[in-house]
From TrEMBL, chain B:
Residues 20-247 form the MacB-like periplasmic core domain. Residues 290-402 form the ABC3 transporter permease C-terminal domain. It is a multi-pass membrane protein. It is found in: Cell membrane. Belongs to the ABC-4 integral membrane protein family. GO terms for molecular function: transmembrane transporter activity. InterPro entries: ABC3_permease_C, MacB_PCD, Macrolide_Exporter_MacB. Keywords: Cell membrane, Membrane, Transmembrane, Transmembrane helix. This is ABC transporter permease. The chain crosses the membrane at residues 21-42, 286-311, 332-357, 369-392.
């Protein structure tokens, strides 16, 4: 696994809100490396800083200090516009509340990231085919023209995952993806994420639910802005995928860098 | 890209059909108002110039001015046009096709047991049909000899001829005008109502007959052979300005006055139209102000609803930013939406304006002319309103922090 390219690397990542006595340290210096093909859970109690970390990793926010290399690019000093572009190109976000646009069909929702793409723009028909393929890959090819309110929660979240996949991002960031779902639908989503992982996708999932985290192969525990534990998760490979990525799950253990 | 944005904007507007329609109402009213007002004022202008030209074409109106009559001064010494000026202009000025003068009197006409009160007796000269564009249907018009000798002859307008004679042939018959008997020598072809005068209701007679028999004696003494107005028809091939100049010189010479303070004034049809137009222009400018205020109000309505829309769609904006929309993408989206809203108002407004103009024309009987430039101007203003008043909401949308926007409930 050390041979896999590094997708995410943070160096002494800090986020401070406010100033003076009212200063709140959300992240106190996080050093973290995530390689391609990993399936990682970020856990921690509320207020631990895990959301802040996710926002920075998702390029929705900038760190106060430290560096963040996404797919080899230091994005920590990026301005709003460049952050938006890098989000569109490198990141697929999945939210707890799906965040599908209610006026658009499933297909059109999936088309959105393509619509905002600046590079390798696709002609309309090719974009449609591409989006349809993404929907098929989450098993919703037959629901392409349904509106979100015509879909179940699990289906909506699968549409959201298709949307996250459509620009072929370097990483999928999922924020409590099963938080709004019943256990059956949750299992469906987790199975889907595992399948994507098996296909070689890099996935980072934020959750406070140990059962959800158990589906991943590596768990990062955040508390008070510190990364307090980083351990591999033996149980994740109950159904090891057949590709090379599964070669040594144990090797993902020591990816935290304290030496920067 | 832009067509997709426009499609997207159209869609979000359609999601709130009633609201979008009500929002555009201000723009609709503004644009429709511009078009209707312009149509009315253009119609009025056209009607005015048409009525002025329908008097006959290429006319020059010479009027007496009595402004120099001082207190205690005898009016006869004050100058002004005299009857002989008509003949002088006719003879001395080149490019003139007809010169006429008229003196009217309200009379009672009798023929057999038919009596008509309040008929207008028009004392004129032989050039009158040329100048006014009248033609003789049967019989003939009177000659200058008949005018000079004050022969008691009459030419009838079509309607009055029918009233007095019905199916009979009036030529050679006699009518009694007040106490004077006139012999009918001709009937004019139909002319209709022009500039408030129904030429078919008139009885035409040599002007000297009117001077002698139908002008109140006091007035006759006061006026002598003076006339109020001489009308000159100019050959279309002649330069009307040159003719005006020559007439001025001739009359100044004849009346022994200087051109700086003449006892007459000369106006062409173009002068009259210009004067009328400046009145309608004032009226039109006022209406344009009213329409502008309406567009302004419409614009504020659009801004208002766009601000509401930005707030309502905060999460959507956050999501769009999360999947790669830059601040400019967001700004353009909302700007296009405001633009589509205002252009929609513009298009509906143009439709309403055109329909309204026709309806107003039909109901009021006034003439309305759709002015293409009014459509262009109002459509452009609608677009400007959209961009202007869409800017602030669009900028607000673009400045939303994606994290805050995504968390917005």
């Amino acid at each position: 696994m050390e041979n896999e390219p590094i997708i995410i690397r943070t160096e002494n990542l800090k986020k401070v809100y406010g100033s003076g006595e009212a200063q709140v340290i959300a992240l106190a210096g996080i050093n973290l490396t995530i390689r391609q093909g990993e399936f990682v859970a970020i856990m921690g109690p509320s207020g631990s800083g895990k959301s802040t970390l996710l926002n920075i990793l998702a390029c929705l926010d900038r760190p106060s200090e430290g560096s963040y290399y996404l797919d080899g690019i230091d994005v920590s000093q990026y301005q709003r516009r460049d952050l938006a572009l890098i989000r569109g190109r490198k990141i697929g976000m999945v939210f707890q509340s799906y965040n599908l646009l209610p006026r658009l069909t499933a297909l059109e929702n999936v088309l959105l990231p393509i619509f905002y793409r600046r590079e390798q723009r696709l002609p309309a028909e090719a974009a449609r085919q591409h989006a349809l393929a993404a929907l098929e890959s989450v098993g919703l090819g037959d629901r392409a023209h349904h509106y979100p309110n015509q879909l179940s929660g699990g289906q909506q979240q699968r549409v959201a995952i298709a949307r996250a996949l459509v620009n072929d991002p370097a990483i999928i960031l999922a924020d409590e993806p099963t938080g709004n779902l019943d256990s059956h639908a949750s299992q469906e989503i987790l199975d889907l994420l595992q399948r994507l992982h098996a296909q070689g996708r890099t996935i980072v999932l934020v959750t406070h639910d140990p059962e959800v985290a158990a589906h991943t192969e590596r768990i990062l525990l955040i508390r008070d802005g510190h990364l307090i534990s980083d351990q591999s998760n033996g149980r994740t490979r109950s159904t090891p995928p057949s590709n090379a990525l599964s070669s040594s799950p144990a090797s993902t253990t020591l990816e935290v860098h304290h030496d920067h | 890209m832009i067509t997709e944005i426009a499609k997207e904007a159209w869609r979000s507007l359609r999601a709130n059909k009633l609201r979008s329609l009500l929002t555009t109402l201000g723009v609709i009213i503004g644009v429709a108002a511009v078009i209707v007002m312009m149509a009315i004022s253009a119609g009025t202008e056209a009607a005015i110039s048409e009525s002025i030209y329908s008097l006959g074409s290429n006319l020059i109106f010479i009027s007496s001015t009595f402004s120099r009559v001082g207190p205690g001064e005898r009016p006869q010494n004050a100058g002004g046009l005299v009857y002989d000026d008509v003949a002088a202009i006719r003879e001395k000025i080149k490019g003139v096709t007809g010169v006429t003068v008229d003196q009217q009197a309200s009379v009672t006409v009798r023929r057999g047991d038919i009596t008509l009160d309040g008929v207008m007796l028009m004392g004129t000269t032989p050039d009158y049909p040329i100048v006014r564009g009248l033609s003789v249907a049967t019989g003939r018009y009177f000659t200058s000899t008949e005018v000079e000798r004050a022969q008691k002859v009459a030419v009838l307008g079509k309607t009055i001829a029918e009233k007095l004679f019905g199916e009979e042939d009036p030529i050679g018959q006699t009518i009694t005008v007040n106490k004077t008997q006139l012999t009918v020598i001709g009937v004019l072809a139909e002319k209709g109502l022009v500039a408030g005068t129904d030429f078919d209701q008139l009885i035409y007679t040599p002007i000297k007959v009117v001077f002698q028999k139908f002008t109140p004696s006091q007035f006759a003494r006061f006026m002598g052979d003076r006339v109020r107005q001489i009308t000159v028809a100019v050959d279309p091939k002649a330069n009307i300005d040159t003719v005006v100049e020559q007439i001025s010189l001739l009359l100044a010479n004849r009346h022994n006055v200087s051109l700086d303070s003449p006892d007459f004034s000369i106006r062409t049809q173009a002068d009259i139209i210009k004067a009328r137009e400046s009145t309608t222009a004032t009226f039109r400018n006022l209406l344009i102000w009213v329409a502008s205020v309406s567009l302004l109000v419409g614009g504020i309505g659009i801004m208002n609803i766009m601000l509401v829309s930005v707030t309502e769609r905060t999460r959507e904006i956050g999501l769009r930013q999360a999947v790669g929309a830059t601040p400019e993408d967001i700004q353009i989206q909302f700007l296009v939406e405001a633009l589509v809203l205002s252009l929609l108002g513009g298009v509906i407004g143009i439709g309403v304006g055109i329909a309204g103009s026709h309806l107003f024309g039909t109901l009021s009987g006034m003439r309305t002319v759709i002015v293409p430039s009014a459509i262009g101007i109002s459509f452009t203003s609608a677009a400007l309103v959209g961009i202007l008043f869409g800017y602030l909401p669009a900028r607000r949308a673009a400045r939303l922090d994606p994290i805050v926007a995504l968390r917005y409930e």
